[in-house]
Amino acid sequence: MEKYVYEVGDVVKLKKKHPCGSFEWEILRVGADFRLKCEGCGHQIMIPRKQVEKGTKGLQKK
Questions:
Q1: What is the spatial distance between Cα 46 and Cα 62, in angstroms, rounded to a whole number?
Q2: pTM higher than 0.85, yes or no?
Q3: For residue 41, how many other CB atoms are within 10 A of its CB?
Q4: What pLDDT, in 10s, does the model give residues 8-33?
């Protein structure tokens, strides 16, 4: 499994899609929890780091 270095402004592609149909999320906050913003509809969520690391399919640097 590849280790990613997450930074604010990066776009992460997750395995599961958001109900709006988008797989891509912009990282707004990094720490024990991540704040992510959906690239499709703009919805923001807080999600544990472990869940993001497990579900990451790809990472685009800013």
A1: 20
A2: yes
A3: 11
A4: 999 999 999 999 999 999 999 999 99
Dist. CA 44–CA 26, nearest whole Å: 9
Q: Give burial (CB, 10 Å; 0-12/13-18/19+) of 40.
A: middle
Using alpha carbons only, how large is the chain's radius of gyration in Å? 10
Q: CA 62 to CA 45: how far, in whole Å? A: 20
Q: Which amino acid is at 19?
A: P
DSSP code for 40: T
Please calculate the CA angle 5-1-22 and round it to the nearest 5 degrees. Answer: 65
Place of tokens 């499709």: 40
SS3 state of residue 49: helix
